[in-house]
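Task: sequence design from structure.
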């Protein structure tokens, strides 16, 4: 392949790191090809202070999807958790590389862990999922909105006098910022976002040439895990504004275990459940788990929430 392959990406430091990682992986797969990174401003960067719920579906992906359709880029690199739960039929997740840590991390301003924060301490996060579960764990804390890239959120914690913030463990590792982590939060307290820690490389369904190239970049076990999680979220008709999370893991070589949570926005209620079954039925497992939680009261908790 002698053409120049154009890789679409957001312009944040983390997004560029991820795109460069994919570029280097593809160079090893196809050393004869040339590559070009094409940074594209998305809605999240055009409106950095606006609540995500007011911007709508595809806050992190819409412009990249359009660039794929117009042929301005050949593939796009995303944090998988940012991709809407239902892809348009002309687009496909062609590869999910091996997943990094799926968990969340607490960055405390003074090193105090989450469980030892004083009552009334303020935590900054723009994620309804994080807000709901943290309030369920510590209803005596105050959760305030905080948006922006990793560096912006870290700096705003000190500027605004917050006790800390919560960020994806994987993103901090990729940016070399692990030293800032006070603690990694386990799923017993905070179930991760669907697909958190995984990258997704998308392209147009009709681009057989790109899809064939990306096969070598795909990590089947990681792809299976996120397929179950995305099935869960899609059945909730959910996106990043839904206070829900899921985490799939392999119990053994052939068995997948899926943990899911649906919470009230204020954290007053938090429904959790778990399901195990054959890994080849990953999507169906996620769907069944979502249906169980909806039947137990999850549908009531999600009433009136903006869906993606």
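Answer:
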């Amino acid at each position: 392949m002698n053409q120049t392959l154009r890789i679409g990406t957001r312009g944040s430091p983390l997004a560029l790191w991820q795109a460069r990682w994919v570029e280097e992986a593809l160079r090893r797969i196809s050393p004869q090809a040339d590559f070009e990174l094409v940074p594209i401003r998305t809605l999240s960067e055009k409106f950095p202070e606006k609540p995500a719920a007011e911007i709508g579906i595809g806050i992190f992906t819409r412009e990249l999807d359009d660039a794929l359709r117009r042929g301005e880029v050949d593939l796009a690199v995303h944090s998988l958790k940012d991709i809407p739960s239902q892809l348009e039929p002309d687009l496909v997740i062609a590869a999910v590389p091996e997943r990094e840590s799926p968990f969340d991390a607490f960055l405390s301003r003074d090193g105090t862990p989450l469980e030892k924060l004083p009552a009334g301490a303020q935590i900054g996060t723009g994620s309804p999922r994080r807000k709901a579960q943290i309030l369920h764990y510590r209803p005596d804390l105050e959760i305030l909105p905080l948006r922006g890239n990793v560096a912006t959120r870290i700096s705003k914690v000190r500027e605004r006098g917050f006790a800390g913030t919560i960020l994806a463990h994987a993103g901090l590792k990729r940016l070399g910022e692990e030293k800032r982590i006070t603690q990694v939060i386990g799923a017993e307290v905070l179930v991760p976002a669907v697909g958190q820690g995984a990258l997704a490389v998308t392209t147009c369904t009709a681009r057989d040439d790109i899809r064939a190239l990306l096969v070598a970049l795909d990590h089947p076990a990681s792809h299976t895990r996120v397929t179950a999680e995305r099935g869960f979220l899609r059945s909730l008709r959910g996106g990043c504004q839904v206070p829900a999370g899921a985490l799939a893991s392999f119990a053994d070589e052939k068995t997948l275990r899926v943990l899911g949570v649906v919470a009230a926005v204020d954290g007053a209620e938090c429904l959790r459940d778990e399901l195990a079954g054959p890994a080849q039925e990953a999507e169906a497992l996620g769907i069944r788990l979502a249906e169980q939680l909806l039947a137990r009261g999850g549908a009531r908790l999600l009433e009136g929430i903006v869906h993606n």
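The CA atoms of residues 121 and 141 lie 5 Å apart.
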